[in-house]
Write a structure and sequence with these properties.
The complex is a heterodimer of chains A (about 270) and B (about 300).
Chain A: H1 3-24, H2 29-34, H3 36-44, E1 62-65, H4 71-81, H5 121-134, E2 141-146, H6 153-165, E3 170-176, E4 179-180, E5 183-184, H7 185-188, H8 195-201, E6 205-210, H9 214-222, E7 228-233, H10 256-265
Parallel strand pairs in A: 1-2, 2-3, 3-7, 6-7
Antiparallel strand pairs in A: 4-5
Helix pairs in contact in A: 1-3, 1-4, 1-10, 3-4, 3-9, 5-6
Chain B: E1 4-5, H1 7-21, E2 25-29, H2 39-44, E3 49-51, H3 56-68, E4 72-78, H4 86-95, E5 101-105, H5 123-128, E6 134-136, H6 141-152, E7 158-161, E8 167-168, E9 179-183, E10 188-192, H7 196-208, E11 214-219, E12 221-223, H8 227-237, E13 240-247, H9 252-263, E14 268-273, H10 282-289, H11 293-305
The chains are: A alpha/beta (about 270), B alpha/beta (about 300).
């Protein structure tokens, strides 16, 4: 898909995220909107090998969403790709729905792991990448994390181990949207930065990119090297003016008026 | 009951044998390869041995990843440190319903001299709280050698508990989910788990000298619990004493109490640990805590005099 088409896909899927979150009257728009270009690049930019008809296809690449609260973005991307009916999105967070409030392995095809407790996905990715290597398989593992997630001690257990592993079939993506629940990461945990140097010190290859720009995202994702960290600089709530960079939109219910505004802005 | 062997020793040997046979088994440890007797594996099968350093949570998460990728991971540390991995175990192994074997060594106070910080007294309790966790605690080396290949082909999450202290060998049988009557009796039932099966047998000997005929049950799978066998024995004797090296809250005693309360209430005493641990020689420590054979016999006498 061309960059122009990818950009259009992003707008469409951001609208669908807002639709799902409005229907649920609950959920996390900030990260679901900031991560969208990266997800679209993975699923429509010829990065991930996948087959919606065969979610367990053994040659697929793996996408593990460690920052589980961003799952509305993953759900709309998977529905659009054909993993399940888009009607499921309107049931987000309802009793019995496949679209659980946070990803729940087994509840929807294409959701590889449960997440929602931060600081776990990278460890799972490491074990999985080792398992694939042991079998001589070519599958690649992508793990997406949030920036607030970098504050979890267990994230650094995994980062340190990855440096030892030398695995070149693992890419970590950090959606650095600058916010966490209690406010800006610069206020809550200013010593999170500089982040790239920390990863480099643990023997990672690091690339910093504009996470809303496909001409930077796609080349970064195409790299195959020792553990690669892509620090993706993004804007929380991207595309919706009153959510962009707002301290209030980690999570929350969208009003009718806000819904109209958001939909108009994402037209 | 002459020879004393630690189940952790049998574990390392059994896992080595299993990995020689089955290339889909991998071993992970958090800097305790020596303590869990995994060094032969490290030496001879280095491509399937993963030492993550002192990082238990990462170990558990990686175990989930290996399971996703088609391997059977045995991921081991001290039982007391499994606590640090519990968040990853709960979600990535438990809720994901993956077949990973988490190995908690040095169960209970069996790392006696190291003191309270080294004593695993809560691991069974929090593992029991997960709805799909199979909890296996072999009674002796013979059972451990059967348990390792058995849990490797089980389904879903498994917690395998090992013991550091060499304990009496009773030529135990082992099958997941099965409780065994290892001594018949009619006056009272003693139910042990792990090496406390042997201690319960020793207690039964003491009681026999006092004309008390104790039946002894070996429960080596705490979850799922073999309720039928336990209820049948309780119905026969009318009194039950449980014995374990674990907190009395949430371990075998709790599991048995819950099962009997629901199915066949009888007077019950739970022999287990009621405090944080402390340093001491193993035999002296378990005597002080009241979880040795004499402690089990004492609980039985109290229950019978009631």
């Amino acid at each position: 898909m061309k960059s122009q088409d990818l950009a259009e896909k992003v707008i469409q899927l951001r609208r669908e995220v807002i639709d799902a979150l409005y229907a649920a009257q609950s959920g996390h728009p900030g990260s679901a909107l900031s991560t969208m270009e990266m997800l679209v690049a993975l699923y429509y930019g010829e990065i991930l090998k996948y087959d919606p008809q065969r979610p367990d296809w053994e040659d697929r690449d793996y996408f593990l969403l460690s920052n589980g609260h961003a799952c509305p973005a993953l759900y709309v991307v998977l529905a659009e790709a054909g993993y399940f009916d888009a009607a499921e999105l309107q049931k987000l967070r309802q009793l019995g729905a496949g679209a659980q409030g946070h990803p729940h392995r087994g509840s929807l095809p294409g959701v590889e792991i449960s997440s929602g407790s931060l600081g776990q996905g990278l460890s799972v990715g490491l074990g999985l990448a080792h398992a694939l290597k042991l079998q001589g398989r070519k599958n690649h593992v992508y793990v997406m994390m949030s920036d607030g997630e970098q504050e979890e001690g267990s994230t650094w257990e995994a980062v340190m181990y990855a440096g030892k592993s030398g695995l070149d079939n693992l890419t970590a993506i950090i959606d650095k949207n600058q916010f966490q629940i209690d406010g800006a990461t610069a206020d809550v945990m200013p010593s999170l930065d500089p982040l790239a140097e920390k990863y480099r010190a643990f023997n990672w290859e690091v690339q910093e990119i504009d996470g809303h720009n496909f001409s930077e995202i796609l080349p970064a994702l195409e790299q195959v090297t020792r553990p690669l960290a892509i620090i993706s600089h993004t804007i929380r709530g991207k595309g919706v003016s009153f959510m962009e960079g707002s301290t209030h939109w980690h999570a929350g219910a969208i009003s009718a008026e806000q819904y109209e505004t958001a939909k108009n802005e994402l037209a | 009951m002459s020879e004393l062997v630690a189940t952790r020793q049998a574990f390392g040997e059994a896992l080595f044998d299993l990995m020689k046979e089955n290339e889909r088994v991998v071993a992970l440890t958090a800097d305790l390869g020596e303590s869990l007797r995994l060094l032969d594996i490290r030496e001879q099968m280095p491509e399937r041995f993963f030492d993550v350093g002192v990082a238990e949570a990462n170990m558990a998460g990686m175990a989930a990843g290996f399971a996703l990728g088609g391997y059977v991971p045995f991921a081991g540390t001290f039982g007391v440190f499994m606590t640090r991995a519990f968040d990853h175990i709960r979600l990535q192994v438990g809720q994901n319903d993956l077949h990973a074997v988490l190995v908690g060594s040095h169960g209970g106070v069996s790392n006696a001299l190291d003191g309270g910080s080294a004593h695993a007294l809560e691991d069974i309790a929090y593992m029991r709280a997960l709805p799909n966790m199979t909890i296996v605690y072999p009674a002796d080396a013979a059972a451990m050698r059967l348990a390792v290949p058995a849990v490797a082909i089980a389904e879903g999450p498994v917690y395998l508990r090992l013991y550091r202290e060499p304990t009496p060998q009773i030529s135990s049988a082992f099958e997941i989910g099965k409780a065994y009557v290892v001594r018949e009796g009619s006056d009272i039932t003693l139910i042990g788990t792990g090496p406390h099966v042997a201690f319960a047998l020793e207690a039964a000997e003491k009681l026999a000298a006092e004309n008390i005929r104790a039946e002894v049950l070996s429960v080596q799978t705490i979850a799922p619990l073999n309720v039928e066998t336990i209820v049948a024995s309780a119905a026969k004797t009318g009194r039950v004493v449980t014995a374990e090296d674990h907190s009395i809250n949430g371990g075998l005693g709790s599991a048995v109490a819950e099962a009997l309360s629901e199915h066949h209430p009888v007077p019950l005493r739970r022999v287990g640990v009621r405090q944080f641990g402390e340093s001491g020689k193993y035999a002296e420590l378990i005597a002080k805590l009241g979880i040795d054979a004499e402690g089990i016999a004492r609980a039985a006498r109290e229950l019978l005099n009631k």
